[in-house]
Amino acid sequence: MERIILFDGECNFCNRSVQFIIKRDRNGTFKFASQQGKIGKSLRDYHQIPADTDSMILIEDDAYYLKSTAALKISKHLRGIWKLSYGLIGIPKPIRDRVYNFIAKNRLKWFGKNDHCQLPSPEIRNRFL
């Protein structure tokens, strides 16, 4: 099963989240693509993800997941205690997404923004599309 995470390559919080995932995904379960890049845009088009979607996006084969559902589905595959956070999937989606939206709304104010996407290190470059 192919799992691709589309992230905001200009957002410091999003870039840190990708590094967090990579560190806890020793098996290389996930591939990554910036939403601003050519591949990210083509994946969004292919899956008909609305252009105004402001969320991390998880693509698993032919399905995609947004917001808290994406984050929790990702956590299910991470090492350590992070796997346990998948249990929060039982909380109704509107409540989970309210928390997600609060963080997403403030992420640039709290963590800042890059003018460009950061380049991955040579060790993990093959995980970026």
UniProtKB/TrEMBL annotation:
InterPro entries: DCC1-like, DCC_oxidoreductase. It holds the Pfam family DCC1-like. GO terms for molecular function: protein-disulfide reductase activity. Coiled coil: none annotated. It comes from the Bacteria. This is Thiol-disulfide oxidoreductase DCC.
